[in-house]
Amino acid sequence: MSKSEKPQKKQPEKPKSNGPKLPPQKKIPRPQYSWVMFVVLAVMAFMLLSRNHKPAEAITFSEFRQRVINQQVQKVIISDSAITGEMRSEALEGLAKDTAGRFEVTLLNGMGEQEDLRKFLDENNTEYAFEQTGMFYNILLSFIPWILILGLMYFFIFRQFRGAGGGGMLGNFGRSKHRLSNKDQASVTFDNVAGIEEAKEEVSEIIQFLRNPKKFQRLGGRIPRGVLLVGEPGCGKTLLAKAIAGEADVPFLSISGSDFVEMFVGVGASRVRDLFKEAKTNSPCIIFLDEIDAVGRKRGAGIAGGGHDEREQTLNAILVEMDGFATDDQVIVIAATNRADVLDNALTRPGRFDRQIYVPLPDIKGRLAILEVHAKKVKMAPGIDLQRLARGTATFSGADLEAIINEAALAATMSNKDFVEMVDLEEARDKVRWGRARRSRVVDDKDKDITAYHEAGHAIVQSIIEDADPVHKVSIIPRGPMGGATFSLPEKDRMHYSKKFCLSMIRIYLGGRVAEEIFCDDITGGAQSDIAGATQLARSMIMEWGMSDKLGFIRYSSNGMNPFGELPGSREYSETTAQEIDREIKQMMDQAYHEVKQILLEHKTQVEALRSALIKYETIDGEDVKRILDGEIIDKPTVNELLEAEQQRSPELDTPSEKNELDKQEGN
Question: What share of the chain is helix, strand, coil (3-state, %, to 5)?
């Protein structure tokens, strides 16, 4: 009997576990019940007050008697203090319209005894009724508005304060605003993370601890309580934290540093306590604090810093909660920031965020892996060279690479293509880095000529001098804030910037301005960004990298630890040294200027040829620049010529080579 009964008891539970999980029905929270109760009370009070306080005409007792005698009164109600009545419809002429035929007689002491009134009304055939209201009823009517006001305060203020657990008089402001992702919702794993293999290996032991904590407790080791992810924006710090939670198959509580601080003092600390309380309830789990520098800056560094600063109270609460972890608490705190230099020392000491993991910009191998991950989500044309794209995206972050794939997919969709082609990827790369090409902008012929000489100067100098990246593409199509651009394609990722490479970059910066001076007999403000880049690079070489033979191996720039910024008189070198620094920068720029001018004068013919090619084609690639330097003449159809030829022929192009040439020209 017992064996046959057990399956019957478990039968109702099978649909719950095996069937599809239905979302639980949401109950109306208490604040909504308060709204409903208040609305009902307000409607009832309004109906009561409107019924008992309709406008009525105030008349004397003698006027009332006269109207009854004249058979103008239809019905009266007699109370202890007043007589209210309604006029007959035929007697409403001449009365106030807003009273609707109602009148009221105030009875004084000894006026209108009930027996006399009853006899008088019976003699004149007038309907009447007696109403016993009493003093309590009148007092209640006068207090109804105040009761409503107190009810409003109770339901919307005091109940909210009382029902907020842990928030005190701050109510729900003290609740944490974190987002909880359960095991079923954690869809990000290490398969979605690429380009940061060393960081993935460094966090693998955290995953092992969350999966099997007894393995680490066997030898008495303690897993790091906090992990600080440091890196440039867009490098994948948040994605790595989500992947850790996905690999460990544990809940993921994420919150931003700015979500802790509100307008009320003490809210941040209250939210920190609420966050860690829920984390311990859901352990094993991961707490992710994004942009922790919003609350984790050095204490006492601000102008208004002090013990009562809201940000410092929040930081103190974080420090206390992380110290409160026991050795068996399976809660890992992961924080992310790109400003590790401003964090408080108490936050990064052992026992709190005692492990810092640097998430770097991806190298060429990492960029290729990231592009392959995102390329799986879109339809790529056969023969796409992601290796070439990875080469041309040095210093790009993972977010930038994802944006390139997305922009290329959008561009291919707008062009009604079936696949994303290489020209779409290259255009998306240029768009992400320098902005969208403004092809519709009308450029004056003189401005176009100046821009062509400017970009030709950049390209010729970059192609001739040593220790420079090869030219990838030159364009005079306005893009972003620039009137034109010379694009380079690095042959490799640079771990270090050598002195020869920096000097070459300064000469490339100056190529455009010197070309304007030589070939246009004038100079323009188009070299503003070039001058700024060259000056900043020269200043860094002398003041930070010790590349000046005269000033030596000394750092002259500020160390960045002054919380108030670079104030007048705060530099750590004398006025004489400052003059020497200015002279060194000026000498370095002048020497580069004279060398660039000599190069362009020696290759004047190539500059003119490159300028003519840019005027005709608007965009040429690096191979064409090499051919021009070798003295060859570029003779290929322009985009307009290809379009005109296509319109004159059939809708389909005759040869695939012409179609590829058209796509290449349009992409450039």
Answer: 55, 10, 35
Contact 322, 352 (CB under 8 A): yes
Q: Which residue matches tokens 């991961």?
A: 286
The answer to whether the beta carbons of residues 332 and 223 sit under 8 Å apart is yes
Task: Give the whole-angstrom CA distance, residue 668 versus residue 663.
Answer: 9
Contacts 24+ apart (CB under 8 A), 19-25: none
Backbone angles phi, psi at 135, to 5 degrees: -70, -35
> φ and ψ at 357, to 5 degrees?
-115, 120
Q: Indicate the DSSP class of residue 234.
A: T
Whole-prediction pTM: 0.63
Tell me: cis bond preceding 24? Omega within 30 of 0 counts: no
Tokens of 492: 């490799």
As a whole number of angstroms, the distance between CA 66 and CA 73 comes to 10
Q: Which tokens hold the place of 390?
A: 């990875």
Instruction: List the Cα angle 487/492/496 in 5-degree steps.
Output: 100
**Annotated catalytic residue, options 455, 516, 584, 618:** 455
d(CA 389, CA 32) in angstroms, rounded, equals: 56
Supply the pLDDT for residue 594. 94
Query: What per-residue confidence (pLDDT) applies to 660?
Result: 54
Dump the DSSP string for 152-168: HHIIIIIHHHHH-TTTG
Strand partners, 286: 252, 332
The encoded tokens of residue 581 equal 């620094």
- The CB density around residue 662, as the number of other CB atoms within 10 Å, is 18
Q: What is the DSSP string of 457-472?
A: HHHHHHHHSSSSPPEE
Phi, psi (rounded to 5 degrees) for 380:
-100, 145
Q: In 3-state terms, what secondary structure has residue 353?
A: coil
Calpha distance 366→398 (Å, rounded):
9
DSSP string spanning 461-511?
HHHHSSSSPPEEEEE-S-BTTBS-EEEE--SS--SS--HHHHHHHHHHHHH
Q: Respond yes or no on whether the N-terminal peptide bond of residue 213 is cis (omega within 30° of 0).
A: no
Q: Are 563 and 538 in contact (CB under 8 A)?
A: no
Q: How far apart are CA 241 and CA 254, in angstroms?
A: 9
Query: By C-alpha distance, which of 369, 316, 325 is closest to 346?
Result: 316
pLDDT of 191: 79
Q: Are 108 and 159 in contact (CB under 8 A)?
A: no
Of the candidates 404, 412, 407, the one whose C-alpha atom is nearest the C-alpha of residue 381 is 412
Give the pairing of strands 127-130 and 179-181.
unpaired
Distance, in Å, from the CA atom of 289 to the CA atom of 170, rounded to the nearest integer, reads 23
First-last CA distance in the chain: 83
Question: 3-state DSSP call for residue 636?
Answer: coil
| Chunked mean pLDDT (size 10), the chain, 668 residues | 42 40 44 60 62 66 84 81 80 62 72 72 82 63 70 62 46 50 62 81 80 75 80 86 82 76 62 81 82 80 52 80 69 86 84 84 88 90 87 86 92 89 88 74 77 92 89 83 80 82 94 92 88 93 90 76 46 86 94 94 91 87 88 73 60 49 52
- Active-site annotation holds for 602: no
With 0-12 / 13-18 / 19 or more C-beta atoms within 10 angstroms meaning exposed / middle / buried, residue 142 is: exposed
Q: Are 319 and 347 in contact (CB under 8 A)?
A: yes
DSSP letter (8 states) at residue 441 = -
Q: How far apart are CA 320 and CA 219, in angstroms?
A: 27
Q: Measure Cα distances from 263 to 189, 478, 486 in Å.
A: 37, 46, 49
Q: Does residue 76 contact residue 128 with C-beta atoms inside 8 Å?
A: yes
